[in-house]
Structures are given as structure tokens and as C-alpha cells.
Amino acid sequence: MSVNNQQNENGCGDVRLTNGTILLLLLRRCTCSSLSPRMTEGFTACDLTCSAATEKASNGRRMDLEQPIFSVLTGGLRAQQAGGAVGATSDTESGIFSAEAELCVEHDSELDWFCGTEQKPVCSQCASSGSCRGHAVTPLATRVTAVRNQLVDVCEKMQLQAKRIERFIEQTLSAKEQKLQSAASRTREQVLAQISAVREALEEEEQRLLEEVQREEERVEQCLLTQRAHWNQALTSLTQTRSHLVHTLTHTPDAQLVTSLEEIAERMEEAEGVGEPRDTEQLSLNTACSDSKLLRGLWASALLLGPKVYGSPLLKFDERTVSPLLSLSEDSCTLTFLHKKSRQSLPYDPARFDCWPNALGSMLMSSGTHTWVLDVGQSGAFKVGVCYASLERKGSGNEARLGYNNQSWVLSHYDGDYSFCHAGKKVPLQQFSAPLLLACAVTDDSITILH
Questions:
Q1: Where is the B box-type domain (predicted)?
Q2: Does residue 399 form part of some domain?
Q3: For residues 365 and 314, is the Cβ–Cβ distance under 8 A?
Q4: Residue 266 buriedness (CB in 10 A; 0-12 / 13-18 / 19+)
Q5: S-S: 421 plus which of 32, 306, 340, 403, CB 3.0-4.6 Å?
Q6: How many domains does the structure of the chain reveal?
Q7: Are both 119 and 150 inside the same structural domain?
Q8: Rounded to an integer, what distance in angstroms lies between the CA atom of residue 393 and that of residue 72?
Q9: In this structure, are 435 and 339 located in the same domain?
Q10: Residue pLDDT, tens place only, 314-366
Q11: Which residue range(s) make up the domain with 115?
């Protein structure tokens, strides 16, 4: 839907709302002269004025009900061009084209007033001296304008709701489906990576886990299909209801329109019953489906059997990152803390830690499962963990201190106490958003990468 605000040469504003099939044209009269219908004696006249001092805008779109004139055209332009057609009259007050005006049965006069007491169109004689004398009456055009304004609001709300449902279907559900495939794929990879070391003993468990992942994927897929079908149906129902109201708005004669509020209310209730789409956890894969106590236990046992069973012989310390407070063995696997007398000045390197006794691994890990075993010997103070390659290397601040920033996660051992540190706090391990490096620090004795 597009919205255009314009000013004509007489200063009359108009707002056009279009969606390809409907044009809602809001006109404001540019004359400030009052229109006082001539009435018979005993009937109070209702003056319609266009005072600039009483103009009010609602939501930047609609003015006071006595000010605007709505023209609703869905093919009405063709009707306007063929204005000479038999049986078609132009109601300039309400701005619509309707069938030939109905006449009062009692006075044979045009039904151009609306009796609010009896809720029906009446002629001026009925209102002034007839059966509706003393009742609350208003010009029929004013009543029609109010009803049409209400219909416009209802149709606009339905259109916005339809847009939200379309976005939910096209964006949220589609994105969830893509994430489902990705999450299921990652889960399978994790399962297969853990099972690969002891595949012979875990063939049955592997099959069970993969079937669980498949069932979970199918469950979420079914939820997505159900949601898609439900909201497509809701969108169709909403569109049909809105189309019906638009048809009522554009083709119903004034006299019939003002008596159809009950039907309009029912349609509004139907639209409100559609509800708003919501994203839920049921639309995401539950990664717990790959959890297995047997797998975790056997995997941990395999790691403890020795370096030949599991591990990467390529993992070493990167010489460029080693702090001057440490020494690196010839095989690049052992870090030893240096006391002051043993320290030597090292050439400047932007990758080297210059204040904290840190060193990083040589292998960047971006996916998969990685393990290593370190021999900490008699060391009473060390840190072992991972960090992002973007970790600060220079200075004595927390930015370069392992476990005291949001770039590193380490298991720390000091004075007999073990703790897991991240950003200076003890926190649970989370998934990571970037490739990682082995990160170590030692301030007592040495630590060695075994595998």
C-alpha cells in the first residue's frame, strides 16, 4: 500500500491509499462557507461547516468526521465516466456512486436524513414534522461518511494484518526452515565426529542417535508445515473478509449501508479471531536429541587411553606469541616460566604477549570437535583454554589477560583452586561465534602439550 500526500492549488489536501485495486480518496473542502439546508418549520437545521479552527487530524490521515469526503473507487472511475447511465446518480455529499435514491413512502421525498433514534434513513418532512420529529437526526451524507470512515479503518487494519502474516510466512517460517536444515546438519556432524573414534563399539548407538535427530527434524518440519498451512488459510480468510467489506464499501447503496453495521461487526469479529502469528520454540530443532550418556562416557574413556587413541600431533605453541616471561622448548610443545635472571629480550612481534605470561596454539580451529591433553607436572599456577585470534597481545590490562575479557575462556589453577573464567567471572561454557586458538599461561614450572 502506498500513501501520497498532496496539496492542490486551492490548498485542499488529499490522501491517496492504493493497493492495486482500491483507491481511497480523502478530500477536504476548501470553502469555509456554511451549508445550511432549508428545513420546514419546527425542524432544527444541522449546519456543516469547514472551519480551519476545528480541523483535526487522526493519525496524520483522517480529519473530523464532518470535514472529509471519501470516494472509494474500484472500477468507480468507469462508472463516473459513464455517469449518464440509466439508474445511476452521483451523491456529491458522500462522494460515491449509488443506485437511484430511494423516496419516502409517506411524503414521496428523497431520504436524505438519518434518524439515530430509529436507525433508519428518513426524509426532511419526517424529520421536521413527521414520525421522527424531535428525534436525533443528522444529514444522511454525514452518517454515510462516518460509516465509510469506519470501514476504511477496518480495511486498513486488515491489510496491515495481512502484511504481517505474509512477512511471517515469507521471512520467519522460511528462515526457520533454513535454520532447521543447518542445525540438523551440524548436529549430525557432531554425532559422527564423536562416534568416529569408537565406531565399532557404537554402531547401534550411532544409528539410534541419528534416528532421534531425524525424528526431531521431522517433528519441526511438520510444525513448520502446520504453521504454514494455518497461516495461509488465515491469510485467505482475512483476504476474503476484507474483499467482502471492500465490496460492501464500494457497491452498497447509502440507505442499505447505514443499516448493515451488525454485519460489519460480525466481519470484524471474524478478522480479530484470526490472531497474530508468533514464533515459538516448537519451530526450532532441539539439539538435546543428540545427547547420549553412553556416547559421552565412552568418548571420555577413549581420550584417557593415551595419545595414540585420539588427538592431533600437529598442535604446538606458536613461537611468535610466546611471552618474554616464558621459554619454548625445541619441539614447541613445552612452556616454562622464567625467573627474572633467566629472561632475555625478544625481537618485537605484533603477535607476541609482552606483559602477561601467555602463549597461543599454532592451529586455528573453526569447526568440529578438538581435544588436547597437557602435562602440567608440578605447576601450581597455570591457565588452559581457548581464545579468539583477535585477543589483545600488548599491555598489562585485562584485555590481554586470559579469562578476564570477552575474548578468552580458560580453566585456571592457582594455589590449589580450580575455576573456569571468562570476562573476569565464573561462567558456563557457550558456543563460540569465531575460530579459536589454544591459549595457555604458566607462572610456575612448566606445562607440555602431549597430544
A1: 99-140
A2: yes
A3: no
A4: exposed
A5: 403
A6: 3
A7: no
A8: 69
A9: yes
A10: 789 999 999 999 999 999 999 999 988 888 888 889 999 999 999 999 988 88
A11: 2-141
